[in-house]
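Team,

Forwarding the record for the chain on the shared tracking sheet. I've put the sequence and predicted structure together so nobody has to dig through attachments.
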Amino acid sequence: MRRTIVSFHAHPDDEAITTGGVLARAAAEGHRVVLAVATRGELGEVADGVLRPGEALSERRVVETHRAAEILGVHRVEFLGYRDSGMMGEPTNDAPGSFWSAHVGEAAARLGAILTEESADVLTVYDDRGGYGHPDHIQVHRVGIAAAETAGTPPVVFEAVVNRDHIRRLMARAPAALPEGTEVPDVDEMGLGVPESVITTAVDVRDFVGLKRAAMAAHASQIDHSSFFLALPEDPFREAFGWEWFVRRGARPGGRPETWLFDGG
């Protein structure tokens, strides 16, 4: 049966890193895939010389999002029209039009209209910490949950998370697999992810990591080819990014995790 998944994200490139494999797999299986992005990522960091003279970063990131979406097989891309709020505690959090300062009900109505129009079966958001505490990621959780509750046909909601234990295991081996001088992020210092014990859904997307990697590379203004993400050789990359994890709302963790977002399969 053909289903529809709406994947809601804070900024361009989040979709490729967090759920790129699931989106590619869903598209390959014949499901309808819709990407909703809250902001255009205006406050992302960009190296000198990446943008053309007079080009705004937001313009580039929209182009990159559509390019990545095409690679993953996404059928529809929608931006909700809010501005990037920046990191937590920055003055930009409260700037007019920022996603963090948006009224949750108003933002949920924008997303809810997409859910209703698409008769979405599944919605992906983030957990209540936004993965690592970014205000726009936290707001994705709040807005997504509210939108799902008011949609004409409420979708099943999956909160995308990072498996902290898996990352720790990989990080212990990462230095040997990386080119010399590559900076390895510290999962504990970043406060990233959740323990394996709370995860309800572990999706194997190793057959789609080539598409996922290409989608990440399409966000070249943010993910340089020498970054930790893309510096990983093929096999370590497959192990690092070949699984995507979720907590299904209403499900009790424990036992063997389900393996797909449709029908609990």
